[in-house]
Structures are given as C-alpha cells and as structure tokens.
Records
---
Amino acid sequence: MKKLISLPIIVGLVLISFSSFSQREDSVSRKNVIKYNLSTPALYNSAFLFQYERVLNPNRSLSVQVGHITLPELLTRFENVQKISNAEQFGYNVTVDYRFYLAKENKYNAPRGVYIAPFASIHHFKNVKDFELKSSETNEFETVTLTSKVNILSAGVALGYQFVVWDRMTLDFLVLGPSISNYNVEMALDGDLPPVELDENLQLILEHIVDRLPFIDRLLEDRVADFDGRTNISTMGFRYSVGIGFRF
C-alpha cells in the first residue's frame, strides 16, 4: 500500500523536476534571437535591417539592429528633370535598445511578452545623383549633380510585444516609440548653369522633396524659402517596427 501511495508522489516529483529543468533549460539555451525587420522596406527604397537580441536575465535583454537602407527616388515626377542616374546611393541604420520585460504583465520570461525599451539610433543617408535639368534661360537641358546628406540621431522609449511561436520563431511588434530626434540635412546642386539658376532650382527641388517625404516636410516647411543648403533641427520623432526572428 505504501508503494502504491508513494508511486504517484514519485511520478509527480519527476514531472515537476522535468518541468523545472525544461524551463531552466529554456531560459539558459534560448537566450539569442536573430530578427529581420519587415516594416522598413515599405518606407525606404532598399532596406535590409537585422536585429540581434540577447537575453541578460529573465526580465531584461539587449538588442542591436544594423543594416543597409536608402531613400526612395524623389525626382521622378519633377518636370524639369530627365535622365536621372545614381552616382552614389548609400545609407545605414544602427539602433540599440535595452529591454525591460514586465514581470507583472508577462506569464513567461524574456524574450516573450510586453516590454519597455529605452533606445538610441542613428540613420545616415548619402545620395549623389546626376541628371539633366532644363535651363529657364536657354530652354535646353544641362547636366547637373545633386548631392544630399541626411543624418538623424534619435533617443527615446519604445513599447512593444514579442510573441514566441513553436518555441523557436518570434514575432516582434514595436508599436509605440516616441523620441527626440536631431536632423542634419545638407543639399548642394552643381552643374553648367548660372549660380542664380542653380539656387532657384535647388529651391524647387527642395519643395518637391518636402511634398514627398513627411519627416522632411515637418522640418523644412517653414525654411524652404531661405534654405541655403544646410539645416539642423531637433524635434519629436517616432519609431515603430515589425520583425520576424529565430530563437536559439
């Protein structure tokens, strides 16, 4: 009789031990997540951003995102321009965030559940475009070069939720990410046109770009008329992303 009574207890202890071991093993052996950012290709011309997240303890992790991004083509609808070619098109992003997975809100340990993440990021874009621009004086097309550089430094706090599916796959939704961002924009137009006409066309090109890029619109809408090729401003920014990953 004692053996029959002790058998369920032994089985129960074994199952509890196995469950505890599995959870402990899961927390030890599943500390890494590699993710691909699914949302950036919708915003940029070319975007390949990858993220690595490392679990530091049951409720915290460190995440680093790096990759290549370029701005979309902006002069295709500009009526005075033809034969556009990209002499140079380059861009990158580096983002670091420190995640706090909320223990009171989450049933499971990191990297699963609701998180709050202070973050800092840098976006850098450089574009050199050669094209033919119609002169208002001669009514002929002349070859010019537009060089633009954009640097964006941001710091803020993000709110998100990461799902773990089938133990290995993750879906990371960063849904809210207000930030303070510093935008540094430089643009120059050079070519076989008189300086006055180059300046006039730079203003027209800038107005065209302002209409097509929302974040530039917020920055330069009050500065287009007196834009001298460079501006630096700090303002509110926003970050959001959707990523798919593999946990190991």
---
Amino acid sequence: MSASPAAATPEVPLDAWWRGPFGRRLIAAEREQLKAALEDVFGTTCIQVGRWGPPDAFLPLARTTRAGLVADPGSRGDLLCHPSALALQSQSVDAVILPHTLEFEPDPHEVLREVERVLVGEGHVLILGLEPVSAWAVRHYFARRGFPPGRAHLLSRGRLRDWLRLLGFDVLAVRRFVHVLPVEALARGTLARGMERFGRHLDGRTGNAYLMKARKRVYTLTPIRPRRRPVRVLAPVVESP
C-alpha cells in the first residue's frame, strides 16, 4: 500500500536550510577550510560527531584509514550514541570533526570532555562554528527558529580556547570565513563575490563562520631518581694497650 502525501514524513527545517543559498555557501566554504586543515592529520580513524549537511560533506576529506559518522539515536550514522557519551574506547580515535555540534548540545563542555577521552595522544579536533559577533548572529537572534534553525546557542572562539586549554589541548589554528550578509538578495552575484574577496584580503580576521583546530597535548613524565645519601660508617674505637 502506497502512503498518501499527507502521511509522508515532514521535512526537517534544517534540511531545507542546508539546500538554501546560505546553507550551500556555508557548507562549501567549510569543506574548503577542512580540506586544508586535514592535510597534515593522519592516522587510523577519524569520526564526525553530529550530522551536518549532506552525508558526504566532510568525511571524504579525511586522510585516515577509516572514517565514520557518529549520530544521535534515531538518526542515520555509522555509530548511534549521544555526543556527550560516545560509545568508543578511550584513546581510540586519531581525529574528531565537530561541525556545529557544540552549538546544538545543551552541555557542549561535556562533549569536549568526551572528545578528549577518545582521542589518542597528539590527536586532533576540528571545530566548526558560527561567530557570535557577526551579521549572521544578528539574524539568528531575531529569527523565529534560529539561523540556522534549531541551534541552541553560539560559542565564542575565546570560550572554546579556554575550554580546550583546560582539557589539555594546544590550539593550532583559527580561521574565519564566509563574509556575505545574511540577506537573500545579497547572497549571490557580483556583490557577494566582492564581499568574499574583501574578507579574504583581511586574512581571516573577519567572517561569520570559523574553524578551530587543536591537538591533544601529551605530557611526558621525567623519572626522578632518588638522591643517594652518604652512609656513615662508624669505625670501632680501638683502645691503646
């Protein structure tokens, strides 16, 4: 029996946003930034925690032997679990991609703690986010469903730096990109291309989106040898005859 159109699954607003002009522009720019950031990230396993955009948007860029998507239960992915409770062994992953995952989670710091747990020493985490002080953020605050829809909060680069450092990461690079205004009439054409060129000319100091790349620090333990104390030898007292 075929289902009637009324019985079809309703479209998720975020899926429609991804296919719109801003979603397509953002994901294309994020692919470009991730491709460059992953050039020196190797190893066995790379995971993307959280679905964002088309299924093949980011994982094919990984240069590890294996790559997989970790998604919430009820969604589609290679591993279904909550981002704050990853069903993975500790120190078993070489790279983690967080595409706006922290912005949708009620406890983003706990997600980062899980990322630190599953990463091997010298493993990398790559975080994609939207700048909280930007034109896109203004539209997010005034949009009924958010921009993009469903996002819980915005996280500044400064706060992420602090969290990562507390968890034992070294922040290697931060890049800002996507410089067009969140107005449909300005999202394409000559004006949009001009805004992108001007933003890139500023060397990443402006932009509505950012990528942060960090590496898990390895602490080397230097053995401390116990200091030897001289042993006092008491000579016997010899009495003279």
